[in-house]
Amino acid sequence: MDVLRRSVIGTSLAVVAALGLSACGGGGDDSGESNTLRVTLVNHVWTENIKQALPEFEKQTGLKVEVTQLGEDQLSDQYNVKLNAGSSDIDVMMYRPLQEGKLFAKNKYLADLTDKTKGNAAFGFDDFQAGPVQATSYEDKVVGVPIITEQEVLYYRKDLLSKAGYSAPPKTLDELKSMAAKIQAENAGTAGFVARTGKAAAVTQFSSFLYSFGGDFVDGSGKATVNSDQAKQAYAYYGGLLKDHGPQNISTDMSWSEAMAIFTQGKAAFYTEANSLYKNATDPAKSKVSDTVGFAPFPAGPAGSKPYNVPSWALGINESSKNQSNAWKFIEWAAGKDQTLAQQKAGVPGARTSVWANPEGIATYPKDLADAIAISTANGVGHDRPLVVKVAEAREIVGQPIVDAITGKDVAGSTATANEAFQKLLDDEK
């Protein structure tokens, strides 16, 4: 979840944009709160779209919105400083539910939105997909509203499949392996499969393999399970697929950008990745294979097709804000049905079920990608990494067996070591 993210999140320095018209209707807010709303957002396509629509919101509400727009790392740094200090000068905050959501909720940085969401028929909270809602809830309370989602899908080369005699993409992981092997054998210099290999970076995309083999990072009681039989099979499969059918001299530090580059340069037949990055593969300016890229649902493993369906970004309200009623007005609008549909049409995958069922909402997506996403949202798992406070440390731990499997080391021994370290992290967080 790591992405719409790096493909669309800029690296520019912080830009503070005081946006908005002065209150057009005058009246302002009758709650005694400030008419100036301070919203902190990340550099993102979603943010650019919202900024363009802000005058409409300001005219409707009589509020003035001041947007602080930051790069991802700078956003995290600001939150670390201001939220830890209990600062009230952030009202609405854009945050990553799976990266810092548990930390923020546990530390009571996020206001409880349960009554505002579930008791609000006009907002239609039941329209939001179950997986993203799960990720923006904490201890049965809603603490955020998902605005951008990601699902893992299969990218593939239609021309290479046709050349090899295949009329359809693989429906199972077994088929994926056999098809990757055949295509690789028949096309010198072309890998059968490519995906992320970096220890931490690969965890999110590996997660769908883990779930589809019937495993998870923890069990129902919260115990580490990265050494379960299902997990061992998933690690061995993912690592083995890259070791045997991946690029020659494969490195073990690839994130999405390196893996995507191999695929878009025509050097691989199959690639599993977040759907939010699809334009990198279909844009002729970025991809040599743009006219022959296909998309398919994540292939089924022994437990079925269980890709992640997660919110990469959500909106929350700072618990220390003195402007919470107006902050909710912004979220209600920005994550409402109209804005979600507008974002969806602009290529930003939304968390509402209705936008995927609306022909307008999928008109800009390749049909096979829209079909794959529909399946993913129905079967999806609401997390793509361990749900812990120390996410970065956990990813390093559970990602090590991925690297070991790719390099041909003993998977059983690696998962045993990882499980012990991960269990210690879980115990330390209690």
UniProtKB/TrEMBL annotation:
Transmembrane segments: none annotated. InterPro entries: Bact_solute-bd_prot1, SBP. CDD domains: PBP2_TMBP_like. PANTHER family: ARABINOSE-BINDING PROTEIN-RELATED, DIACETYLCHITOBIOSE BINDING PROTEIN DASA. This is Sugar ABC transporter substrate-binding protein. It comes from Plantactinospora alkalitolerans.
